[in-house]
Amino acid sequence: MFFVISGFVMLYTQMQAKKITKQFYVSRLVRIVPIYWFVTSLIVVIYLVAPQAFNKTVATPSWTISSYLFLSSIVSHKPPLIFIGWTLEWEMLFYLVFGISLLFSTWYRSILFVFVVLSAIGTSFGNPIVLEFFAGMLIAAYALRRKPLSHKKGLILLIFGVLLFASINDAAMELSLNRVITSGIPAFFIVLGAVYAKQINNRFLTYLGHASYSIYLVQVLTIPAVFKLASSLSLDINSDLLSTLCLITTVVAGVLMYSLLEKPMTVFLQKRFVK
Fold first, then answer.
1. What is the mean predicted confidence (pLDDT) over 76-82?
2. Sequence-separated contacts (24+) of 96-101 with Cβ below 8 Å
3. What is the pLDDT of residues 198-223, one digit of tens each?
4. 5, 6, 7: which is closest to 114 by C-alpha?
5. Which pLDDT belongs to residue 174?
6. Which pLDDT score, from 0 to 100, does residue 59 have?
7. 3-state secondary structure the chain
8. Over the chain, what is the mean pLDDT?
């Protein structure tokens, strides 16, 4: 879902107001890097002050630097210090390719270029996961160039995608099918359907959407904290309740980080660097 949505948003926004390559790169770096570096720095500080908080993690200099540079998977052959940051390393690679594609004069050539390069990358790494970004681009191209689907058809496609995803069981996993098939294809239909389904106008949900990046990052701190607190207090909590506490804590912490840090910092940097 994350990669498909990303591919959709990038092409959809650029087809409506195209940036030059430099502007695109600056806008993406301003949006992604500062808060990511902040959370990474928090983890480094916690490691230096209280290394016992990490089980067997050893934050070596090379791992730390490569984590800051979104190169951990290549340099250190493991996820970055923010372990979910592996998704952002793929994301930054997609941005690199997509930014180059903006040099072409037509969208057809840009889209074809992205497909060829992502296919080559997927083949080189033995992992076609990057094609999920391209799937999102296809949805954007269809949404802007073709006759819109009805809300009803959009809802049907969304439900179909959810059912397709839910139908993937252990037997399918045992066949070692690539996640592009088991997750990417259902995500394609879910996002396609969501684009055309009737939209819900809710200020709270919209705000959570704006804060989603901070929520996504802060979970690497809040979830372990909730578990360690429950363990230190010897609380016998039902796993469902514990998961709910993790969710609530993460959302609250993410919203606070977005409101107090990410949003003002992003606005300041955009005014200064994004034309």
1. 89
2. 97/121, 98/10, 98/11, 98/24, 98/133, 99/21, 99/24, 99/25, 99/28, 100/21
3. 888 899 999 999 999 999 999 999 99
4. 7
5. 61
6. 78
7. CHHHHHHHHHHHHHHHCCCCHHHHHHHHHHHHHHHHHHHHHHHHHHHHHCHHHCCCCCCCHHHHHHHHCCCHHHHCCCCCCCHHHHHHHHHHHHHHHHHHHCCCCCHHHHHHHHHHHHHHHHHHHCCHHHHHHHHHHHHHHHHHHCCCCCHHHHHHHHHHHHHHHHCCCHHHHHCCCCHHHHHHHHHHHHHHHHHHCCCCCCHHHHHHHHCHHHHHHHHHHHHHHHHHHHHHCCCCCCHHHHHHHHHHHHHHHHHHHHHHHHHHHHHHHHHHHCC
8. 90
Cα angle 134-139-142, degrees, rounded to a multiple of 5 = 120
Q: How far apart are the C-alpha atoms of 275 and 26, rounded to whole Å?
A: 9
The amino acid at residue 216 is: Y
Interval 114-169: pLDDT, tens: 999 999 999 988 888 999 999 999 999 998 887 888 999 999 999 999 998 888 76
**Locus of tokens 């809040």:** 222
